[in-house]
Automatic annotation (TrEMBL):
InterPro entries according to UniProt: ABC_BtuC-like (IPR037294), ABC_TroCD (IPR001626)
Protein name: Metal ABC transporter permease
Any coiled-coil regions, as ranges: none
Membrane topology classification: Multi-pass membrane protein
Keywords: Cell membrane, Membrane, Transmembrane, Transmembrane helix, Transport
Species in which this protein is naturally found: Tumebacillus lacus
Family membership noted in the UniProt record: Belongs to the ABC-3 integral membrane protein family.
Top-rank lineage group of the source organism: Bacteria
Residue intervals passing through the bilayer: 6-27, 32-51, 57-75, 87-108, 142-161, 173-197, 203-222, 229-248, 254-274
Secretion signal, residue range per the UniProt entry: none
The keyword Hydrolase is assigned to this record: no
Lineage: Bacteria, Bacillati, Bacillota, Bacilli, Bacillales
Coarse class of the protein's main subcellular location: membrane
PANTHER family to which the protein is assigned, alphabetical: ABC-TRANSPORTER METAL-BINDING PROTEIN (PTHR30477), METAL TRANSPORT SYSTEM MEMBRANE PROTEIN CT_070-RELATED (PTHR30477:SF8)
Length: 291
């Protein structure tokens, strides 16, 4: 497969996996949790290096995933203790990220674990980081990591779709029906953590956070049905990746930046022209009623 197709495939997988799981964050009013996880993974990465003395991606992934889960646990604990959810995310995000910065400056200043390397990966380099098994190159490592995480998310949410749906829309009713609301929350947050940390090292935190939020928010404006919203968000993510890549080539600009800008443009179009929620369409409906 050519360099161009690998980059587009990676972007499409990141967009699909992030937008699919991001829809649930939007419904639960926790959209910025992905941003928090992408930064609080830093201390986990440093600790994984200090334990393993290796920059292997799998060790980094495990360390980042552990701290991603710790982030969701702390946010949930603070929220249940009476702290507003956005304040809980902000406190946890800044505190753990600061711990990571201190760990890097004290224990890993001579190692290539700088903030740019950890948090702002470049999707253009993905095709050169190959997964090699038995001397055979099987494709970019990011494709396997993100694709595997996406398949896991599809499987888990497919099995527990009704449970996730009711706990997202009415957790009180779910608790009254005897559903394990807290357990389901942590299962979903585990998927969010895995999705985030499997993607951000390769494609960058900015693109991951954008794909967690923007395609889902765009789909939310276009439909009132959850199943359609999930599928539409993935389609919007893929379209964003394709258009963003060719826009970056045309403008000789950052690929991740072009993809994020494309996602924002699609959201703006939905915000203005959505049949049911668009500003322009509501204005036209009011004018018809007035006349």
């Amino acid at each position: 497969m050519s360099y161009e197709l690998w980059v587009i495939l990676t972007g499409a997988l990141v967009a699909s996996s992030c937008s699919f799981i991001g829809c649930w964050l939007i419904l639960r009013r926790m959209a910025m949790l992905g941003d928090a996880i992408s930064h609080t993974a830093l201390p986990g990465i440093v600790i994984a290096f200090l334990i393993s003395h290796s920059l292997d991606s799998w060790a980094m992934l495990i360390g980042a995933a552990v701290f991603g889960l710790l982030t969701t646990f702390l946010v949930q604990t603070l929220h249940q203790s009476g702290v507003q959810s956005d304040a809980a995310i902000g406190v946890t995000f800044t505190s753990l990220f600061a711990v990571g910065v201190v760990l890097v400056s004290v224990y890993a200043r001579d190692v290539h674990i700088d903030l740019a390397h950890v948090l702002y990966g470049e999707i253009a380099y993905v095709p050169w980081n190959q997964l090699v098994v038995g001397g055979v190159e099987l494709g970019p490592r990011a494709v396997w990591m993100v694709g595997g995480t996406f398949l896991l998310s599809l499987a888990v949410i497919g099995l527990l779709y009704k449970e996730f749906k009711i706990t997202s829309f009415d957790p009180a009713l779910a608790a009254a029906l005897g559903l394990p609301v807290t357990l389901l929350h942590y299962i979903l947050m585990t998927l969010v953590s895995m999705t985030t940390v499997s993607a951000f090292e390769s494609v960058g935190a900015i693109l991951v956070v954008a794909m967690l939020i923007v395609p889902g928010a765009t789909a939310y404006l276009l439909t009132d049905r959850l199943g359609i919203m999930l599928g539409m968000s993935c389609i919007i993510g893929i379209v964003t990746a394709v258009i963003g890549y060719y826009a970056a080539v045309l403008l000789n600009a950052s690929i991740a930046g072009a993809m994020t800008t494309t996602a924002g443009t699609l959201f703006l179009l939905a915000f203005l022209f959505s049949p049911s929620h668009g500003v322009v369409m509501k204005w036209r409906a009011k004018r018809r009623l007035a006349n």
